[in-house]
Design goal:
Number of helices: 8
Order of helices and strands: EHEEHEEHEHEHEHEHEEHEE
Pfam family, one: Formyl_trans_N
Largest sheet: 7 strands, mixed
CATH superfamily of the largest domain: Formyl transferase, N-terminal domain
Strand order of the largest sheet: 7-6-5-8-9-10-11
Organism: Cryobacterium roopkundense
EC number: 3.5.1.10
CATH class of the largest domain: Alpha Beta
GO molecular function, one term: formyltetrahydrofolate deformylase activity
Pathway: Purine metabolism; IMP biosynthesis via de novo pathway; formate from 10-formyl-5,6,7,8-tetrahydrofolate: step 1/1
Number of domains: 2
Helix content: 25-40%
Length: 290
Amino acid sequence: MPHLREPGREYILTLSCQDGPGLVYDVSRFLNEFGANIMSSHQLDDRRTGRFFMRIQFDFVGAVPSVDGLVAAFADVAARNKMTFDLVDSATRTRTLIMVSRFGHCLNDLLFRHNMGTLNIDVPVVVSNHPDHAALVQSYGIEYLHLPVTRDTKVHAEAALLDVIAEHDIDLVVLARYMQVLSPETSHALSGRAINIHHSFLPSFKGAKPYHQAHDRGVKLIGATAHYINDDLDEGPIIEQDVVRVDHNLGPDELVAAGRDVETQVLSRAVQWHSERRVFPNGNRTVVFR
């Protein structure tokens, strides 16, 4: 079983701002003054954009201040340096809603990892436009919500989805081979907190049936891409990608089968990194502190 963090002992501070001198010093001095012990620290100065990104995980060996107290105290440092920041207890689990259509391999993998405790998430509900996976999801004690989507019901279905997200206080939406294209309005509402798995190595083979496109082109590598969604189909900031080598012996159906393992691994890593506050939006790209 994975190491279970004791609530109230370890914290994660993430921040971004315009780059400048003394940023690491200011943050380190603040933590030292509170008696914190830095367990890991990652930072990046993006010379192209002039942005600075930082993730620090720390704990306390003595008296432990509250999260609210730390946030209030760090607000002065953040204001001085015009930082956007987040500070959370590392034991806080990301409340996650999973969306799925007929292909269940990514859903099954996420539920298994969630059940084993290897993903820092809680999954209160799974939403699907098909009833196929109800028994699987309910076997984990998780609510399964069937929201059919047609041309006539799409607006109503997406409104219901946003209601469910608000009702369950959802932090992250995972499109685990959910095959409906979300409207620009819904995509915008979920900006930065919805991850999609696309079954190709983007930017190649966008849209439908990418494995068939890959077969037609005779590629020697197929892959998968996990990315945040945005208003443009398959154009959101990329979080993780991977590939597997293939050859001319494999037909389209065999490419589909070969790609499923890659899809599950890529998506689970993206969800894990997001839930551990390792991913930072940076324009149409991301910074990922692994």
